[in-house]
Amino acid sequence: MNKPPGLAGHNKFEELSSPFLPLPIIAWCYALKKVAVKPDRDTSVNQQDRGYVFPDPVLFLGVGTPETQAKFFYNWLKHRPALIYRLTAHQSNSKPLSSQVWRSMLHLPIGGLQPPSRPHTSTSGLPTNTSTSERTKSAKRLEVICSLLENCLNVDGVEVNETQTNEVFWQEQQLSAGSLPSQQVAQEILWELFELNFRFEFMALDSRAHIPSASPTIDIPRVDLLLQCFPCSISGSILVVRREFAHQGLAASSWMDRAPFIIAMKNVVRTWTGFEKVLRGCGQVDLNANQDVAAYSESEINAMELALATFYTQSFYDFFGRAAVIPRRLAPKLEEPTQE
Q1: Residue 106 lies in a domain
Q2: What pTM does this model have?
Q3: Are 93 and 122 in the same domain?
Q4: Out of 84, 106, 155, 323, which could bridge 72 as a Cys pair, Cβ 3.0 to 4.6 Å?
C-alpha cells in the first residue's frame, strides 16, 4: 500500500474528490492506485525529474479559500499562451519545474509580479516573520518565475505585466480575477492541464524507457507511433490539445472507440524496459500479437487497457519518483440551441 503524502497531505496515487475535477478514466485511476511505492525512491531521483512541465492540476484543488483558488485560475489563464508556447517553440529547452515554483507562480499578486508593499513586510516583499531560509527559498522561486515569464513572453515581444487588466479569457469567455469560473469551465481548464502534462510525461517516459534495439515489428517512425496514441494530433504535434477531443481517444466511453488508441499505445510501450513482465502477467490477451482492432473482443481490449495503464504508471514512478499525471475525460459538450 502506498502512503506518500501529496499536496496538503493528499496521497497523489489515490483518486481526488472535487466538483472541478474532470471525469476519471477508471482503468487509469485503478492503475495509479496500485503503483508499488519504494520508501527510498525520493532520495535517489534527480529533483528536476520530479518536476512538472505545466502546473500539477492538483494545485488548483488544494487551495484554502475560494479567493485564492480564483487567483490560481486567473494566473494560469493569464500566462497560459506563453507557458504553452515555451514548450512548443522550435528548439525549446524548457525544463520541468517543482510544484513549489508552480504554486508560487499561481500565487502571484493579480497586479503583477512584484507583491505590493504592506505593513510588516520586508523590502524583498516577503513577511518579516519568515525565517531567513524560507525567505531565501521564496526569493529563489520568485527569481525562477520572473525569468520564466520574461523569457517566454519576450519571444513574442510581450513584456511581463504589460497588460494590467484583471480579466482573462477561456474559449472566448471572459473571466474575472476575483471570481471562480463555473464548474464546467474549471473542469475544461483542468482537463487541458491533465492532458498536457500526461502527453509531455508520456514522451519523457518514452525517451527514458524505450530500448531502440528491441526491434519493433511495426516499421513506423517513433514520432508517428506516439502521435497515433492521441486523437486528431493536429499539424503533427502531440501537444495540440482541444476541448472537443476530451471524450475521444483513451478517454472515449466506448471500448470500441478506445481500442485503436490502446493498441497504438501498446505499439509504443512494447519496446520499453520491463515490458516482458507485462507479457507474462497479462493472460487474458496476447500483447505480442499484431491484429486489427476488429479482431479483439471487449474483454481483451479492457484487459489490454488495464495492463498498459498499470505498466505505464509503475514505469513512470520507477523512472521519475512521483505519481504520473494520468489522463481524464469530459462529457461531450452540448451544442447551444439555435435561435429561430
Answers
A1: yes
A2: 0.85
A3: yes
A4: 106
